Amino acid sequence: MTINDHKIKTPILDVRDLAISYETRKGDVQAVRDVSFEVNRGETQGIVGESGCGKSTVAFGIVNFLGRNGKIVGGSILFQGQELRGRSEEELRRLRGDRIAMVYQDPMQALNPSLRIGDQLSEVLTVHRGLSKKAAYEKCIVMLKRVYMPDSEAVMIRYPHQLSGGQQQRVVIAMALLNNPALLIMDEPTTALDVTVEAAVLDLIDELRREFDTAIMYITHNLGVIARVSDGVGVMYAGEMVERASVEKVFLRPFHPYTQGLMRCVPKLGLSKESSYLYPIRGRVPSPANLPPGCIFEPRCDYARPQCGQTHPQLREVAPGHFARCLFAEEIVAQEWQPSEDLIPDLAALAARKAEAAEPILHLKNVRTYYEQEQKSVASLLGLGKKRYVKAVDDVSIEVPKGCTLGVVGESGCGKSTLAKTIVGLEPLTDGKVEFLGFDISVPVSKRDLALIKELQMIFQNPDSTMNPSFTVGHQVGRPLRRFKTVPRRQVRNEVIQLLDAVKLDERYYDRLPRQLSGGEKQRVGIARAFAARPDLVLCDEPVSSLDVSVQAAVLNLLLEIQQEYGTTMLFIAHDLSVVRFFSDYVAVMYLGKFCEIGPAEAIYAPPYHPYTEALLSAVPIPDPSVAQKRIRLSGTVPSALNPPSGCRFNTRCPRKLGDICETEEPPCRDAGGEHRIFCHIPLEELRKIEPVVTVK
Predict the structure, then answer these.
(1) DSSP string across 635-665
(2) Average pLDDT over the chain, rounded to an integer
(3) What stretch of H or E contains 209?
(4) Spatial CB neighbours of 67, under 8 Å, sequence gap ≥ 6
(5) At the N or C end, where does the chain have fewer CB atoms within 10 A?
(6) How confident is the model at residue 163, as a pLDDT?
């Protein structure tokens, strides 16, 4: 279906010149201006852009969830040919539950924690369809099975907190589809999910769209997701639609500089940090209350001309079925873009440092981290019961060369974060040995020498959880400088300013409080604080997973620059294999407390694969419609670490399982050459015959 085909039929949703404002003390602020798009039955329209671009505001405007100070001030919203503007709250309420449904980023926003899943699902049918409780209950079980929910009958009697994140999201999708809505609005529904669960949910969305012939409006900042699920795509920036066309047209030839910039921020799955670089969009999205004159993207645009700062461009057709809001769109060719000299890194230095890798700085030998499981039985209270343990990390051994980056990848619950916390000393070691700089650090951080603590720092996924809201940025970055006496006290302020400058924040941030910073700025402060003591090893636990693609690119580049300058060793934890591939020299794939594949980054992403690695690569959304990707989906969820499967721990989900040997015997370590090791019963000769996951069409 092309954009032009929309003109010959009535779309399910037709948004025309939509404008939304919010009332503030300083007057009305226009959050959305002049937004137009259509969604046809059986099609998916993607809306993409950075945080603060107005994507969710458009969605909330359609269903009238703008809050007390929000209002639609212009344009029209036609649903099945009928105007939604001016409808009463009661009419809109009936529509929202019946013919329009919405799936949120956080499923707990739509689920009541105090009600069982069955009661919440049944209510949709008893209220909007008038079904009896019994009929509604039975239909809900059928719908849960339709969204591939395992053990659907048992799920109906559970509470939301008893389900995993992927299961909660499937419940919300089932709830949205119960009334067979004509329009389904999805606001970042897979952002917080593992890559394997995300792939399953995206497959489900596409399958349900075809089966129910539903029109879907899909909002996300992930270009790979858009490429996978959408027919058309609209790119939003600072409240305006700046480009709109079919997915193929936008991805293969983007006309707007902002769209081009977003694509340059995304790591390519097949490229390493020695052969590629990310080019973040400079600056940030302007506040709706302080928009620049002329083109709103002009302050961040690499192609800007004097006329751009004076004339506000209109969204116009620059090619058949392709619309862009740029005065010079036809003259801009993405392939001809060249970065400025200050953006080009010394990639040769990175490659040389890897080739000259020194002695390993970190040794892990048979590391185990177990958590004792609390038991409430009478026998356990009397001290007679057998103790049970959650085997979060179970017999892990690895070495990390100085000056290089080891990426650790795997699904949630595989033990990645526990491994990092064990190394840094935040979790007690159950067994094994951890050596750092030749010293045994197999003790909690409270018992370590201050000099070793100084050399081993950590960057956390959520900077809010590690920043004190009452202290300024300068005070918090300066604390390790004072604690470890890195510089004399009188030089602390100057050193902090230099650190802020290194993470692309200037002196003005010194006296700001955390609440005055954006998410990306907080993460940069966290990086500055981690590197303040000039450590030899930094553990990065999902430091970019919650960031926009442009901010993510800037943070990854920043870490690379700091590593290049100081020769810092890093352990980088993530679930996004494209980010890990771009950033890491070596990769360890972790599953249920054990490593199943270890080797140089380039070896991990080409056959031979471990079957788990192959499935992870198959699940990564790739922002390129011209790339073919094998479809391998894992059944079920990660088993409990309290009672892991015998033999190979992956055997319960492995699509290449050999038989009983996988269930009874630990897999052998197979040497694939060049430091590449695969822990699998399948012979290397067979693994080498596997076709690559990603190929160019």
Answers:
(1) -S-PPPTTSPPSSSTTTTT-TT--SHHHHHS
(2) 86
(3) helix 195-212
(4) 22
(5) C
(6) 84
What values do phi and psi take at 514, rounded to 5? -55, -35
Average pLDDT over residues 201-216: 86
C-alpha dihedral sign at 486, 491, 493, 495:
negative
The separation between CA 310 and the C-alpha centre of its own chain, rounded to angstroms, equals: 37
Q: How far is Cα 308 from Cα 311, in angstroms, rounded to an integer? A: 6
Cα–Cα distance measured from residue 16 to residue 34, given in angstroms and rounded to the nearest whole number = 8
CATH architecture entry for 4-99+179-251: 3-Layer(aba) Sandwich (3.40)
Q: DSSP alpha helices (H): ranges in 533-575?
A: 549-566
For residues 601 and 583, give the distance between their C-alpha atoms in angstroms, rounded to a whole number: 9
- 667 preceded by cis ω (within 30°)? no
Q: Where are the domains of the chain?
A: 4-99+179-251, 353-605, 606-697
Task: Give percent of the chain above pLDDT 70.
Answer: 92
DSSP assignment letter at 377 = S
Q: How far is CA 316 from CA 234, 297, 306, in A?
A: 13, 16, 20
577-591 pLDDT, tens digit per residue, is 888 888 899 999 999
pLDDT at 304 over 70: yes
Q: Rounded CA gap, 181 and 585, in Å?
A: 48
Give the chain's length. 697
CATH of region 353-605, choose from 3.40.50.300, 3.90.550.10, 3.60.150.10, 1.20.950.20 = 3.40.50.300
pLDDT tens sequence across 34-46: 999 999 999 999 9
Distance CA 626, CA 333 (A): 18
pLDDT 10s digits, 412-449:
878 898 999 999 999 999 999 999 998 999 988 888 99
Distance CA 541, CA 571 (A): 8
Residue 22: in which H helix or E strand, if any? strand 13-24
Task: Provide the pLDDT for residue 7.
Answer: 43
The values of phi and psi at residue 261, to 5°, are: -65, -40
pLDDT digits over 76-132, tens only? 999 988 898 888 888 887 777 678 988 887 788 889 999 999 999 999 899 888 899
pLDDT value, residue 217: 95
37: nearest Cα among 326, 229, 321, 330:
321
Q: Locate all alpha helices (DSSP H) within 6-130, ordered by sequence.
A: 55-62, 89-98, 117-128
Pairing of strands 669-673, 676-679: antiparallel
In sequence order, what are the residues at sequence separation of 6 or more whose Cβ sits closer than 8 angstroms to the Cβ of residue 262? Answer: 48, 49, 50, 223, 235, 281, 549, 550
Task: Identify the helix (H) or strand (E) that includes residue 166.
Answer: helix 165-177
10 Å Cβ neighbour count for 87?
16
Q: Does residue 342 surpass a pLDDT of 60?
A: no
Average pLDDT over residues 569-573: 93
Same fold? 4-99+179-251, 353-605: yes
Q: What residues contact residue 152 under an 8 Å CB cut-off, 6+ apart?
A: 141, 144, 145
d(CA 378, CA 572): 44
